Amino acid sequence: MIEYDLIMMSLVIFVPAAFGLLCLIFPAKFKEAVRWWALLGTAVTLCLSLCLLVEYYFLLDSRSDRGLRSLHHPKTLLDARADEALRRASMPAPEPRQAYDWVGTVPWIDRFDIQYCIGIDGISLPLIVLTSLVMFFAVIASWKIETNVRAYFFLLLTLQTGVLGTFFALDLFLLYVFYEVMLIPMYFLIGVWGGARRKYAAFKFVIYTLLGSVFLLVAIIGLYFTDVRDFVDKTAVDARAEERRKESPRLTQDEIREYHTFHIPTLQRAGQGAMLVLTGQQNRLTARDEPGEGKVPLLGRGVHIESARGRFQQAFFQPTYQYLFFVLLFVGFAVKVPVVPFHSWLPDAHVEAPTPVSMILAGILLKLGGYGLLRLAYPICPWAADQLSLVIAGLGAFGIVYGAFVALGQTDFKRLLAYSSISHMGYVILGLAAWGGGAKSQYWAWGMNGAMYQMVAHGITASAMFFVVGVLYDRSHTREIRQLGGVMTSMPLFAGLSAILFFASMGLPGLCGFVGELFVVLGSWNYHPGLSLAAIGATVVTAAYLLWTWQRVYLGVNHHGHYTEITAREAAVLLTFVVLSIALGVLPQTLLLSWMEPSVTGLVESLARLKPD
Amino acid sequence: MILADAVLTTAGVESAFSLADYYPVFIFLGVVTGFALSSLIGSQLFYRLGLKPFKPTAVKAMAYESGMDPVGTARMQFDVKFYLIAILFLVFDVELLFLYPWSVVAYSDGSSPEWKQLFGRLVFWEIVVFMISLGIGYIYAWRKGVFKWK
Amino acid sequence: MNSLEHTLQQAFQLAVPEVALVGVACVLFLLGTARGVNRHLAGFIALGGLAIAAISHFTALPRVPGIETVTPLLGDKFAMFVRMAAFATGAALVLFAWNECDDRRSSDYMACLLIATAGSSLVGTANDLIFLFLALELVSIPTYVMLYLPGLQSKKGQEAVVKYFMLSVMSSAMLLFGFSYIYGLTGTTNLAAIQEILPRLVAGSESTTAIIAIVFVTAGLGFRITAFPFHFYAPDVYEGGPTGTVAFLAFVPKVSGFAALLKLFAFLGSAHAVANEFVKQAMMLFWILSAITMTAGNVMGLLQNNLKRMLAYSGVANAGYMLIGLAVMPTQAYRGIDEAVVATGPEAIMFYLLAYGAMTIGTLTVISHLHSPNRPVETVDDVAGLRETHPYSAALLGIFLLSMIGLPLTAGFAGKFLLFMSALAAPAAAPMRDLFVALAVIGAVNAAIGAYYYLRVINAMFLRTSLSAPTPRRTAGPLWVTAIICAVFTVAFGVYPLPMINLSRAAVGGL
Predict the structure, then answer these.
(1) With CB atoms counted within 10 Å of each terminal CB, which end of chain C scores lower, N or C?
(2) Are the C-beta atoms of residues C408 and C494 closer than 8 Å to each other?
(3) Best interface-test mutation with C: which of A214, A227, A247 has the largest number of C CBs within 10 A?
(4) Final residue before a domain boundary, out of A261, A285, A320
(5) Do C408 and A314 touch (CB under 8 A)?
(6) How far apart are CA A319 and CA C128, in angstroms?
(7) C306 contacts C214 by C-beta, under 8 angstroms
């Protein structure tokens, strides 16, 4: 049966790669045609992802009861939708799959239960739209690329497929594959089209990322070995046991019922179950069709807690392994964020990458790290995350302060922005880690929402700022702040637009950077005031380095002669970024929070209920 | 047949190896040691009893190395032709040597008619294949000009 | 018909393809002495021989099952898997070595190649210690000639031959010594019988002798798979040897070595062996061997500048990854996690072997194609800027190197995934469970270390500019066929590995 949602989502993932492949068949001399073709590809993707957004809003709205929290119906949460899809598929007489649940599955490698399983919710969708948007602008910013145009756009669009696939994936293996697919295009984009030390930068980027993904791989395989049959519906386990009985008749009754999976929502449930087991709240576990007061319905339908107890002796439910899995997942994604001790690849990569690639790197790739932590590390290992939350929050706060101070000392414009990215992504980590259960869960929800908002806002401001640097570099051929100056006299429009972007990045109220940081600071205040204060204090440093930079670049005297004012192409990009940062600053609820917040809050609630205090 | 050596007892499987089965080896060892010792002792005895003259020379006192000079550099060059001849000799001689035990055992009187009926033809064709492969090697060596003393 | 006769007949039928190969090799030897025979004729005859062997594999297959386990040859699925792998590799290497030798020596080279192919195929079929040893020697002895024939003039080539010859003979001696102990312990040379007897024996007082036997056998076979302390010859031999033979050396001895190891030590995974001190010692042996081999290979690989030396160390590292599968094999006795959903060690080894073969032979194909005496391609610097001068070669080499790094959608990744999976699948009841988790982590870290030196080559090819373009001298046709087959294999079984995984599983199922 053909599912509408599966087709739509797959289109969003693979349209860029298809356009990218077709780039290669253009004759080499039609450079302009290739550019327009790539632009068309990203435009189509952007339109499709906006369609997804509308469809997702309809999904939320269809369950709306017009009440206070109208878009918060629990059945619209990704977890519930994925569960429903699994339940339908495992029925003895399979019920038709839903075409509008925005979760879709196609088997890939049956033996290991590896599936092409994709889905969207309020956590992945903002980042998907952001990716399509930034990619669209990155293609516009790539107009100046003159060498190997076909290969360049092929790699750029393949990169987009990798990133989008990672955001869509609901299967760990699939996620890993997309995550790695992204690596090679990025390597070539930095290494071939980059600046003077591009080889070194590209190399460093790949080595860091590979090391991170190797940790990820071990975690993924390790998670697969958890027997999660108690967290899957009994019908599904039965159906699979029946199949396996035919294949390997010598297995015992118990062995035949083992259930291993890469399915992310299922693993999330198992991880939450592990937290209950480890905190001595085993009795709160109950089947999903038997909810009760104070109970946590995590077990599969038809599973009774008594029968499941024996399997809580598994490695996965032991503290050592919870720590191990969390650390593996955390390090795997922390390299990408980057969290401070793993950050040293970022300044090099940014400095050497061409403008559009820098935009993508800052605007999208860093978000993959945050997304991974939010989607995998926290929900799958909540117990270890809770135990280590202070460490992680500390790392986040340290990143904020450290990034800001190091940025203050930079003279290279792009390096400065790279450290400012590290500082801004620190807010994401701090917001994530501001763990609190029970009454405090509301504050954690603020922190989480803030982290998500910060990711989107930073995606817009950071890619815009790198575009600004690109525009300046095209005219002055330098990134040294000391050699720039007096840009405002020759480019007043450009100076004005970039001023707004600087303020947005600084986190001025009314602009997009403010909302996320405010939420994070509010959330973390209730978690640990000291860290919150550090984050607040760092905003002063942020303001200092950004304002100082603006001053040095735009005011003063221009020693280099006249720069031409920005072209219509550049103005269009900058203007869109400016409009977006103002709009997201003024209407955060309408534009983003209304449909993002239910999923984030849903995730927070599902984790916070595990820790009543 | 092949499994016969595996000793299956009621208590399980035991190693079929027993040192006592190898006593001829020890007899042989004894004979060899005895020969060496008796020659040494014998020659000393003959000398002490005055039955043997004692006229040592430098050449006589040298260690015996099959005609090679035991003192001096070991890095002498031989003509490679010698090696070739040696290898050819080894190959054909050793392989032909194999024919002796075959001819003795293959159709010996002691073998049962049943055995002959089963393996008679097989054993014959085996040795034919063996000879053919030897012949191929011979033709190869010949065509390659190994037998020419260049 | 008498059952004994029937069994014998079956055993002969099983060897028909190999006999055919050796027969064609004899024809080639004789033909080589005739005048006017060129390398193309020799190549086509060799390909024809392989085709005949493959056809006779299907036509001469024994139809009626007999008392299979007492024959010196065993036609199980494992044997058929190894045979098909050997024949396919043989064909790829014939194409690879098409222009390796001049017209006068080519037929000798091809004949040796066919004999070695027959030998590696027989390793899978062997069901008898003596037969196994003969099959292994049938791989080794032609290799000496193959190393020597194409590169008579160079000093490094001669060093390679002598080094390989000496160490190979030494390793055979060790192997034979180990075999003699096994025979002494069990009183039989029949492998199936040994599998039955040895686990019962080692439970008792004979375990010290058994450990000595296993250590020596592992040492002897460790030479062939280039496991850590026995790998010293590899870099020198790879560097000095002719590329076609190096491709052979990189893969075929590994196949036969691992096939022999799996055949000999399959009993460690049988149910008798549970809770046995001896099995734990054997596991520890392979664990250490695996961890040290991959670490040593990768760390030494980091220091290499010569491409072929680098590939030699990469071969050592890959042997280390594959040894993971061997180390976890004994845990099958403690079957805890349903084996239908996870990868077993032997299965992962079989899959990874093929993936490794495709990527290594492919890499060497491209290097061999680019190399010429006037403009040698030996070091990493020599491939600099290949993207501009030879884009197709660069793309192919890129695919093979990415597979070696182990990026998803390549066969190299699928293989590593299976191996790590087999390590983590060690059941909770098995001894050393945590050590196997550690082994997977060590393997993963090693994969990241290894990525560094593969990436150096990619870096050079795609990001640097070349000082002078390589000037391929060879007629490229057969080489390209090999390279493209390898690339297709690498990508196809990376994207959809399921058929090959199922084949590997079926192959090791009977062990």
Answers:
(1) N
(2) yes
(3) A214
(4) A320
(5) no
(6) 49
(7) no
* Alpha carbon distance A224, C424 (integer Å): 9
CA-nearest residue to C12 within chain B is: B122
Look at C30 and B12 and tell me if their CB atoms are within 8 Å: no
On whether residue A599 sits in a domain, the answer given is yes
C459 contact A CB<8A: yes
pTM over 0.90: no
All domains of chain B, ordered by start, with CATH? 3-143 (1.20.58)
Cβ atoms C66, C7 nearer than 8 A: yes
User: Using an 8 Å Cβ cutoff, are C99 and C39 in contact?
Assistant: yes
| ipTM for the complex shown | 0.85
* Alpha helices (H) in C187-306, listed in sequence order: 191-202, 207-224, 233-240, 243-265, 277-302
User: Does any domain span residue A404?
Assistant: yes
Residue A232 and residue C325 in contact, taking contact as beta carbons nearer than 8 Å: no
- A8-60 pLDDT tens trace: 999 999 999 999 999 888 888 888 899 999 999 999 999 999 999 999 988 88
Eight-state DSSP code of residue C127: -
Cis status of the peptide bond prior to A338, with omega within 30 of 0: yes
| Pairing assessment for the beta strands B12-14 and B7-9 based on DSSP bridges | antiparallel
Tell me: the pLDDT tens digits for A383-408? 999 889 889 999 999 999 999 999 99
Q: Which residues pair with C190 in a beta bridge?
A: C128
Q: Domain residues for A278?
A: 224-320
Residue from C8, C22, C24, C26 to probe the interface with B (highest B Cβ count within 10 Å): C26
Let me know whether A595 and A446 are in one domain: yes
Question: Are A574 and A455 members of one domain?
Answer: yes
Residue type, A349: A
Report H helices in A477-562.
Answer: 487-490, 492-506, 512-527, 529-554
Distances in Å between the Cα of A76 and the Cα atoms of A51, A82, A372, A603 are 18, 10, 21, 12
Residues A527 and A605 in one domain: yes
Burial pattern C414-440, b for ≥16 Cβ within 10 A else e, equals bbbbbbbbbbbbbbeebbbbebbbebb
Q: Are strands A103-109 and A114-119 parallel, antiparallel or unpaired?
A: antiparallel
Position A63 in a domain? no
Beta partners for C379? Answer: C306
Kindly state the tokens that stand for C269: 């995974």
Q: Which helix (H) or strand (E) holds A4?
A: helix A4-23
Give the number of other CB atoms < 10 A from CB of residue A202.
28
- Which structure tokens are listed for A550? 């603006």
